[in-house]
Design goal:
The complex is a heterotrimer of chains A (327), B (672) and C (282). Chain A is of the alpha+beta class and 327 residues long. In chain A, 31% of the residues lie in helices and 24% in strands. In chain A, strand 7 and strand 8 (185-195) form a beta hairpin. The radius of gyration of chain A is 21 Å and the shape is globular. Chain B has 4 domains: 1-8 and 81-158, no CATH class; 220-364 and 375-401, no CATH class; 428-470 and 477-558; 571-669, no CATH class. In chain B, helix 3 crosses helix 4 (108-132). Chain B is an alpha+beta fold and 672 residues long. The termini of chain B are far apart. With 282 residues, chain C is an alpha+beta fold. Chain C has one domain: Hypothetical Protein Pfu-838710-001, CATH 2.40.320.10. Helices cover 21% and strands 29% of the residues of chain C. Chain C has 5 helices and 9 strands. The relative contact order of chain C is 0.26. Classes of the chains: A alpha+beta (327), B alpha+beta (672), C alpha+beta (282). Chains A and C meet through strand 4, strand 5, helix 2 and helix 8 of A and strand 2, helix 2, strand 3, strand 4 and strand 5 of C.
Chain lengths: 327, 672, 282
């Protein structure tokens, strides 16, 4: 999971920025590199809002309006193994108060200190879930079918034909954002800048891969090197890389963009993984998976497994941050 | 009497729904009798008298006639009358009975005779029937005429013996003898019938026992015996493969019929009974190798049932195998596989071809070219076994697929893909030929280098590396996992070290016919630190390219090993000289000389068959320059050295036994 | 997606025989299945609808239709839904510790991550790892009302969920954990039909009902069947991708009715009472 930054340039009545203009800017800013598109990419984003929050709050009731809650579903072609669902945490836990025991639910708030004062539109923390692509589609249908009293589909935007460039140590994904629901119209352009230089975070998150495709003993040596790593180091790397990305963006000289780099929650999965590596808990996933393969459920969908369910969550958070239009 | 027995067969007269109304009745009376005013006692009395008088006259007349008749008509007259009437009756009856059927020209006499006898027979029948109806009403009723049935109720006539006349003694004796004889005869007939029935039943029991014991024997052998799904009365044995394609799965069932003697008949319906099997022929050059006949073929009806079932099973398997081979071959038309009606032709390489066909067991080998090299059928046999194992594997895969959770039902039916039968076999053969070629190439070039005195480290090959189990990997959990290996891409690796230290090369051959990218490709990776800008060629598709790449690599290796060799300087030890690899990719080295026109150049060419070293003097300033700018001097003093030394050439021409000798010699010559 | 179903009740003495019959019919070995089933209930903030009297005064005319739509959505149906996870027999606590079992259970519940000392024997090295538990969301609507009365038909959805603790995600999506039970049974596949001969097991009574999904499983032997006689339910189901396609729906129901005919001599497959399969949350 490389460190990324996402910029969204909204279409305003007096300024239109499109993919073509962005490409020109990129070419002008990096004349030394020959810019050849190395691929295409695709994005699909659905924004849902809590249905009660859509009612106009009455002025005479005296209650302060409750904060809007969102559910965002995002699918990125560069993370084809799963879709992302990002949901505002519930305001109160239903029926039973949350027990403090669950370890996954209580991560320390991350990066809020590092976040350089740019206001996030959502103040309440959000929950990231990744599901396989078929489930992503099914869940969206489920929410629109069976959860109408609390979730209302507001928007769908897509990036139908994004272009990918490699510029030095960066990989840049650019594309035009089109709204397809409720009405078709252009919303702006989006740029993802990915740092592809040396990165501890990237190698840490990629640690699972060699084990899954061959079981070679490559990673045994690597484990040790991560033991010395502290969470603070991870934070520091995020901050440092963010400044590199900002510098890169600055060279493009595009104004009026919405930036999403150091968001609350970014780096959460990496730190969890670091924690696991350091406690030496080898998650015997391969073993468990073999067994699960033999078991079957009775429903219609067989269990399918995602090799690395946390891949791309940082980028997904950033995309969803800029695409969370107030609607 | 007749009058009294009339039965109301006609529907009862229809009752008017309601009685006539009084006015209607009055009108009727008026109409019939005149007005009521005219009715008085006198009139009525007169009427009554009139009525009475009319009745009396009638009665008198009748009475009178009855009394007169016996007196007036004498006996003969009466008889005549009787005959006449009877004739009339019979004629009438004849007319009624035969008019529609008989043509008019037939004689009246014949007619009357016929009708008379018919009539009498019918009457007799009726009479007997009526008589019997007392004791057996049902039976008698069937033979009664409808008229009689109408006239007389059943059982109204009985017979009894009244005062039998005494029989004479002899008659009684006769009767008793006859009846005794009859009885004996009947007893004998009955006993013989019973005896024959008993023997028949005995035979029946025997054959039935035999039938069932044979059925049980089959069941004990593990065959699945069941009721025939279409004929509810018959038993059937299932020998087919449940996971086969439906048409072949349904053919794997034959009913077990019982012959007269109770032996089992395997009734496969309309299917041909002969054993058939898929024959594999490998055509290599002019030779044809035929796979051996599967054992157990050619069972006849005299064989035990077990054999016949086995043969039926084998046949259905072989037919399915061929069916699937043809199906796959059609999909493999891209690999120039051709199919005819009963032949699949698979070209493997230039001089090798595989022919597959379905033949009858008994025709096998007859009229075919008798191959003398019987021992070389291994490849054909191996192929024959391989395709059969792969079909069994496909069956297992079907079972696995069938027992997975089904996908949601859609209107589109998924098509079953062709099985992988030919493709793995073909991949193996293709791979084999590539590996053999590469091996021969390596051994050729290795021997060339060896003959040139270059101590090339031995190369190592790891054929079918992908099939070999690495010691660390767990043994395959199931049989399926074992076979699955053969469907994966086949990979062989060749690796070797070079003359220069830390130099190495690896060639991986991958063949994949099961999934794209199809075909064989080579992955050549090189590591030659002495030539820094050398890049591995990577994936190559053609043999020529691979040969060129490796030859080039070895050339570079030879060049760099020569250039790195410290040469003994003849003149003074302080000034050590080396060959300078100016154009390593072209195999050119130069030995600089203080004299600008006396640079010595060496050109090395390497091919699969020989290595040639050529030295000559060039005149250019620094010795650099190629082609026309190379400026070869007129008296170039060309020396050529070739390896391997040709045996028949001039042996004197080649005084150096190795490349290095030649190099050293040339170095020393360069400084005369 | 739609699901078509038929059910039959199988008394415990018939269970073994029926397993054999089904194995013969489907030509496959029964596949034993154990499933954890977590029940979640949709919730919404209380009082939101009632507190909304007179709020439409400040509405602009333009969004009147929108508001109507929102109001309609607010009054839409809410459902219970299940989260299903397959487990194996090895995942259950060993039964040998029957004497000290309650003690061991509480101990285990207290120490999630570290290995409980009772499980250090080599033969029971397998420990249930809740964080690796696979889950899927199984939603079933109330059966459609009497359109195809011979067969139960209902809208369904099935979606894989991430491994491990699903509760935070489910809570965020608007579902609260209610309770859980276990389903034990055997699966057969007959062409498109999934035949599941199963029964519901309850967690041992007496222990405190947890307020979140269990992180450890009690010994399997201690699980008690919901139906006291231990009888089983035979469920034959077939899923249809597009329920609006009458052709496939017809095919599916014909398949099911065909199975009913085939099994007629063994069990009587029937549609279920619609209201007993009501998943709506009141």
């Amino acid at each position: 999971m490389p460190i990324t930054g996402v910029y969204f340039i909204p279409t305003t009545p007096n300024a239109t920025t499109t993919l073509t203009t962005l490409t020109e800017r990129l070419r002008a800013s990096f004349p030394d590199d020959d810019l050849i598109p190395i691929g295409r990419w695709f994005l699909d984003h659905k924004l849902m809002r809590d249905t009660p929050g859509l009612l106009p709050h009455s002025t005479n009731s005296g209650q302060p309006p409750s904060k809007p809650r969102y559910m965002q579903l995002l699918s990125l072609s560069h993370y084809p193994t799963h879709g992302f669902i990002y949901t505002s945490e519930p305001t109160e836990k239903p029926f039973h108060p949350p027990s403090a025991a669950s370890p996954a639910a209580s991560p320390a708030p991350v990066a809020s200190a590092a976040s350089p004062g740019q206001g996030s539109t959502v103040d309440m923390p959000m929950v990231m879930t990744t599901v396989p692509p078929p489930a992503y589609k099914t869940l969206f249908q489920h929410f629109t079918y069976a959860c109408q009293p609390f979730w209302c589909h507001r928007l769908t935007v897509t990036v139908p034909n994004g272009v990918v460039y490699d510029v030095g140590d960066f990989r840049v994904r650019m594309g035009d954002v089109r709204q397809t629901f409720p009405a078709a119209r252009a919303r702006g352009s989006i740029v993802e800048i990915e740092w592809r230089g040396p990165s501890v975070v990237d190698s840490l998150s990629g640690m699972q891969q060699p084990r899954s495709d061959g079981g070679e003993d490559v990673d045994s040596g690597v484990d040790m090197s991560f033991c010395a790593l502290e969470e603070a180091d991870v934070d520091a790397e995020y901050v440092a890389t963010a400044s590199l990305i900002r510098e890169f963006w600055g060279r493009l000289g595009v104004s009026g963009a919405k930036e999403a780099i150091l968001l609350p929650g970014v780096g959460k999965e990496v730190k969890e993984k670091l924690g696991r590596v350091r406690t030496g808990k080898r998650d015997g996933e391969s073993k468990v998976r073999d067994e699960i393969g033999m078991l079957v459920g009775v429903g219609s969908v067989p269990f399918e497994d995602d090799v690395d369910p946390t891949a791309g969550t940082d980028a997904a958070r950033q995309y969803m941050e800029v695409l969370r239009f107030n609607r | 009497m007749v009058e009294s027995f009339t039965l109301p067969l006609r529907p009862p007269p229809e009752q008017s729904e309601r009685p006539d109304t009084l006015p209607v009745e009055i009108a009727q009376i008026n109409n019939q009798w005149g007005s009521f005013r005219e009715v008085n006692e006198e009139v009525l009395r007169a009427k009554i008298a009139e009525e009475k008088a009319r009745h009396g006259v009638q009665q008198d007349e009748e009475m009178g006639e009855g009394e007169q008749e016996p007196g007036e008509v004498d006996v003969t007259e009466r008889r005549e009358q009787l005959y006449k009437r009877r004739l009339e009756i019979t004629q009438f009856a004849m007319l009624v009975a035969f008019t529609p059927a008989k043509p008019l020209e037939s004689s009246v006499a014949n007619q009357s005779l016929n009708s008379k006898s018919h009539q009498e027979t019918m009457l007799a029948l009726d009479f007997i029937s009526l008589l019997l109806s007392k004791h057996a009403p049902r039976q008698a009723e069937t033979s009664m005429s409808p008229l009689l049935k109408q006239l007389a109720p059943l059982g109204t006539l009985d017979s009894d013996l009244v005062n039998p006349p005494p029989r004479p003694e002899s008659a009684i004796k006769d009767i008793s003898t006859v009846s005794r004889g009859w009885r004996i005869q009947n007893f004998e007939a009955a006993s013989s019938k019973l005896l024959s029935a008993a023997t028949r039943l005995n035979g029946e029991i025997e054959s039935e026992t035999r039938y069932w014991s044979e059925v049980l024997a089959i069941k004990d052998k593990g065959w699945k015996v069941c009721r025939h799904p279409r004929e509810r009365q018959a038993l059937a044995v299932q020998y087919g493969f449940i996971e086969a394609t439906p048409i072949f799965r349904d053919r794997g069932l034959a009913s077990l019929r019982r012959a007269k003697d109770g032996s089992l008949i395997l009734d496969k319906g309309l299917l041909p009974t002969g054993a058939r099997h898929v024959r594999v022929r490998v055509k290599q050059g002019n030779q044809v190798f035929v796979s051996s006949t599967p054992s157990g073929g050619g069972a006849s009806d005299t064989d035990p049932i077990e054999h016949r079932i086995l043969q039926a099973r084998d046949s259905v398997f072989e037919e399915e195998l061929f069916h699937e081979l043809v199906r796959e071959a059609r999909a493999m038309a891209g690999c120039s596989v051709t199919t005819r009606q009963n032949l699949v032709r698979v070209p493997v390489s230039d001089d090798m071809e595989i022919l597959l066909d379905l033949v009858d067991a008994d025709t096998h080998g007859v009229g075919l070219e008798q191959n003398s090299t019987q021992g070389d059928n291994r490849l054909a046999d191996g192929l024959a076994h391989a395709i059969r194992i792969l079909l069994c594997f496909a069956h297992r895969q079907n079972l696995r697929r069938r027992t997975q959770l089904p996908r949601p039902l859609t209107s589109i039916r998924p098509t079953t893909p062709e099985y992988h039968l030919l493709r793995p076999a073909l991949a193996y053969l293709q791979h084999l030929s590539h590996v053999r070629w590469l091996k021969s190439f390596f051994s050729d070039i290795h021997s060339v280098l060896q003959s040139a005195g270059l101590d090339m480290p031995e190369w190592t090959s790891n054929s079918y590396a992908s099939w070999k189990k690495s010691p660390t990997s767990p043994s395959p959990a199931t049989l399926e996992a074992l076979v699955e290996n053969f469907l994966r891409p086949i990979e062989s690796t060749f690796s070797g070290k070079l003359l220069t230290s830390r130099g190495s090369f690896t060639v991986a051959i991958r063949t994949n016919l099961s999934s794209p990218p199809f075909g064989t490709h080579y992955d050549v990776s090189l590591n030659l630190p002495s030539v820094p800008d050398l890049k591995s060629p990577g994936r190559l598709g053609l043999k020529d390219e691979v040969e060129a790449a490796i030859t080039h690599l070895l050339l570079l290796d030879v060049v760099s090993s020569i250039s790195s060799k410290p040469l003994p300087s003849i003149r003074n030890a302080s000034n050590e000289q080396t060959w300078d690899a100016v154009y390593p990719h072209l195999g050119e080295l130069i030995l600089p000389n203080t004299h600008p026109e006396k640079h010595k150049k060496m050109k090395i060419t390497l091919s699969r068959h020989e290595i040639t070293l050529k030295t000559y003097i060039v005149r250019s300033i620094d010795g650099i320059g190629r082609g026309t700018t190379e400026l070869r001097s007129h008296n170039a003093a060309t020396h050529i050295c070739k390896f391997p030394q040709s045996s028949y050439g001039t042996p004197a021409a080649q005084e150096h036994s190795s490349v290095m000798d030649f190099v050293v010699a040339e170095t020393s010559k360069g400084h005369p | 997606m739609h699901e078509l179903l038929l059910f039959a009740s199988v008394p415990v003495h018939q269970h073994h025989g029926l397993l054999q019959q089904l194995a013969g019919l489907t030509a496959m070995q029964p596949r034993h299945a154990l499933e954890r089933r977590l029940i979640f209930k949709a919730f919404r903030k209380p009082g939101l609808i009632t507190g909304r009297v007179g709020g439409s005064q400040d509405l602009q005319q333009a969004s009147a239709g929108d508001l109507q739509r929102v109001n309609k959505m607010l009054n839409g149906g809410m459902f219970y839904t299940q989260v299903v996870g397959p487990v194996s027999e090895k995942d259950f606590a060993p039964a040998s510790k029957s004497v000290s079992a309650p003690d061991a259970d509480t101990k285990m519940a207290g120490m999630d991550e570290s290995k409980p000392p009772t499980l250090t024997q080599p033969d029971i090295a397998h420990v249930y790892d809740y964080d690796q538990q696979a889950w899927k969301l199984e939603f079933r609507d109330i059966p459609e009302a009497a359109t195809r009365s011979a067969i139960t038909t209902r809208v369904m959805a099935s979606a894989a969920l991430p491994r491990g603790d699903v509760e935070p995600s489910m809570n965020a999506w608007g579902y609260g954990f209610v309770t859980e039970y276990l389903v034990e049974g055997d699966v057969f596949i007959h062409n498109d039909i999934v035949i599941f001969l199963h029964r519901v097991l309850h967690y041992p009574t007496g222990e405190k009902e947890p307020r979140e999904p269990r992180r450890n499983l009690p010994p399997l032997k201690k699980m008690a069947p919901l139906e006291k006689t231990g009888s089983y339910v035979l469920q034959a189901s077939i899923t249809v991708q597009d329920g609006s396609n009458q052709e496939t729906m017809k095919t599916a129901s014909q398949h099911l009715l065909g199975l009913r005919e085939q099994l007629k001599s063994a069990v009587r497959l029937e549609p279920a009472d619609r209201l007993s399969l009501d998943t709506r949350a009141k």
